[in-house]
Design a protein that fits this description.
Length: 680
């Protein structure tokens, strides 16, 4: 017992001591590596009512986010968005979907700990941002600057307060998804509006923007950001792709520290001006030929100059302006314009009516000055029908003006692919109150149906309760694939047709049935077996089935105005006269539909009644007792005709492809023949 006493005392002393604090494994690893602990900064994420977004800190394992939408795109394929890049300064990678500009401002302001005020006039509409590549040095604040410049909003710092105010009408394609990177992402499909933020590595935005502006569409926009050395392209995806190809040609090492100049001529011939300037520069003894590269772009009638010297740029501008002014006057020449998309006789009538009646500026009786003539001289024009061409005799200046008008008139027409689906929906179960009620119920449950824009009162052939809906294609597909809809839907027709802008297209699917149109009493021939009077019945054919007539008109912003005339007719059971009744449901309307969105026309409900006689064979035919062995039933059914039409605008890129190829040819020539001689 005495031997065990020291052991018990040691156990008691051990139990009374405080155990050492356990050091986490990550702290031990950090201490062994010699790295200082990095203090984490939490980002307070605002909670919008409808939007789904996430804020991810690069180089950090924590994230503050709401439930992300399935459509959100990771920054780098195969990697976690939180560990994409560890640079000198970690900055959030923003993936936002259907977030407002106000929400983006609040995220950045809270992250930067700003005191801020947002003007109520700042647009508060949906914005989609997807960063699909890493941009070193471009922080969350710089992304905000880009968004503000896109939507014409200014950020003003004053007395410790940041003010966000609109600079002018901020109506520029709000809601277009924002992508960042030098390449088009795999998810960027279709021909809708996008905003592409493109970082430049070797050339400045100021030098490259004048070249890029030649390739944007009518409603497109280019924003320069010299602070971050980026350009922002707001345009339709096909144009954005083409502009990114142009950027890939110029944003290369051979153009580093060099100035680029593109000058378009209205009157002068670019090739002649280029040759003249090269000859003039050869006379400058102090200007070696390896200090500049000048070439002409024929399709643009433009001059392209690449040089490391600002003095060369100034000289090219001076001589180009001089030759342009001298070309305003000159001798008459012969010019031939080959019409590509229109008839030459149609074009010549417009040109004659537009320019032939011009006269010098005079004052009318009220003393108001009339419009000055556009052309400075006379011109003659004839038509070559065999070659579909116009032949002009006029000066170079006047022809350039006429040619500009001709190219706008002779532009390729846009085309529209019309996708239509005609359904006959049985109104029973959850659809018993009609498709309208069903869609409104789905709209209240956003997780199932999404958002539908209800437009009551549309003209649908005089049917009471007719309506139209506007929705995105994937929302329509999700609704049609629901079990309660799929089991009650009969697809009558799914026609697809391509049609030119402002032209009509028609689809007729069905059969022709013969109906009795009348009886005529015809006297027979005397002395024959047909003597007397007999009746002659005449028949005619009537088309039944599905008929669809559409006439689309495309606006510059991608809105398709459609004149729709649709009918669906089905012959019923034959009557005593031999002619079956024709059940017809039709809709006629004029609507505006955004490119790629679906239009639903419904409300055309038809009710039918069926009488059924059931009984035991033979016994159900015996008089008096037949009622004991038979019964009669009536069944009623309702169905609604649903028309879904989706327009897809097809844009012509032939001219842009040709100009891009010419640029590529000149750049390849510069790279192989000139680069190396052009000293910095």
């Amino acid at each position: 017992m005495r031997k065990l006493t020291p052991i018990f005392l040691m156990l008691l002393m051990t139990a009374c001591t405080v155990p050492p604090k356990q050091v986490p494994k990550n702290e031990i690893e950090r201490a062994l590596s010699g790295k200082r602990p990095v203090q984490k900064t939490e980002i307070e994420t605002p909670k919008p009512e409808k939007s789904h977004y996430q804020v991810i800190e690069r180089g950090r394992s924590t994230r503050a986010s709401q439930t992300p939408s399935k459509a959100l795109i990771p920054a780098v394929k195969g990697k976690s968005s939180a560990a994409v890049k560890k640079g000198k300064e970690a900055f959030p990678l923003l993936n936002l979907e259907d977030a407002s500009l106000w929400e983006v401002i609040k995220i950045v302001a809270d992250y930067r700990h700003w005191n801020y005020v947002i003007d109520p006039a700042v647009p508060d509409k949906g914005i989609n941002i997807r960063l699909n590549s890493t941009i070193e040095g471009l922080g969350v604040e710089n992304i905000l600057h880009l968004l503000l410049s896109i939507y014409d909003v200014a950020m003003v710092n004053r007395d410790g307060m940041v003010y966000f105010v609109p600079t002018k009408g901020a109506d520029y394609k709000l809601g277009a998804p924002v992508y960042v990177g030098n390449k088009v992402g795999r998810d960027q499909i279709g021909e809708g509006w996008v905003t592409q933020v493109i970082p430049l590595h070797f050339v400045s935005p100021k030098d490259l923007s004048p070249i890029l502006k030649e390739f944007i569409s009518t409603g497109g926009k280019i924003v320069e950001d010299p602070v971050t050395s980026t350009v922002v392209i707001i345009d339709r995806l096909p144009y954005v792709r083409k502009i990114m190809n142009i950027i890939s040609l110029f944003d290369v090492n051979i153009f580093k520290n060099k100035k680029m100049l593109l000058i378009r001529f209205q009157n002068a011939d670019a090739e002649k001006v280029t040759n003249n300037i090269i000859e003039i520069f050869k006379g400058y003894g102090a200007l070696p030929e390896d200090k500049y590269y000048i070439t002409s772009i024929k399709d643009l009638n433009a001059l392209l100059c690449v040089t490391p010297l600002q003095e060369v740029v100034d000289e090219v501008k001076f001589w180009s302006d001089k030759f342009e002014k001298e070309s305003e006057v000159g001798e008459a020449q012969i010019f031939i314009y080959h019409a590509e998309n229109s008839k030459a006789e149609d074009l010549v009538n417009i040109i004659k009516e537009l320019y032939s009646e011009e006269h010098t500026a005079t004052k009318d009786s009220k003393g108001k000055l009339e419009l000055r003539p556009v052309l400075k001289g006379d011109f003659k024009v004839i038509t070559d029908k065999n070659n579909n061409s116009l032949i002009f005799k006029t000066t170079r200046r006047d022809y350039n003006i006429i040619e500009k008008t001709l190219k706008q008139l002779d532009a390729p027409k846009k085309q529209v692919l019309i996708e239509a689906m005609i359904l006959d929906v049985s109104l029973s179960g959850s659809l018993s109150y009609g498709f309208t009620f069903f869609l409104k119920h789905l709209q209240a449950d956003a997780g199932r149906g999404g958002e539908f824009h209800f437009q009551p009162g549309a003209d649908a052939g005089g049917f009471t309760g007719a309506y139209t809906f506007l929705s995105k294609q994937f929302q329509i597909d999700s609704v049609l694939n629901m079990n309660e809809v799929k089991s009650r839907t009969n697809v009558l027709s799914t026609p697809h047709i391509m049609v030119l802008d402002n032209e009509s297209a028609s689809i007729d699917v069905g059969e022709q049935i013969s109906i009795q149109s009348g009886n005529i009493a015809v006297p027979g021939a005397a002395g024959t077996t047909n003597a007397g009077v007999y009746n002659s019945t005449s028949y005619q054919y009537l088309s039944t089935g599905v008929k669809l007539n559409v006439k689309p008109s495309i606006s510059n912003n991608g809105i398709v105005r459609m004149e729709i005339d649709q009918s669906y007719s089905v012959p019923g059971s034959s009557t005593g006269s031999g002619n079956p009744p024709i059940k017809n449901r039709s809709a006629k309307t004029i609507v505006n539909v955004p490119d790629g969105q679906s239009l639903i026309i419904g409300g055309m409900i038809q009710q039918s009644q069926t009488n059924n006689d059931n009984g035991i064979p033979l016994l159900s035919k015996i008089p008096l007792v037949k009622y004991l062995f038979s019964n009669k039933t009536q069944s009623r059914s309702k169905s609604e005709l649903i028309i879904i039409i989706t327009p897809h605008v097809i844009y012509n890129q032939v001219d842009a492809n040709r100009i891009t190829n010419e640029f590529r040819k000149e750049i390849d020539k510069f790279r192989t023949e000139i680069y190396g001689k052009l000293k910095e």
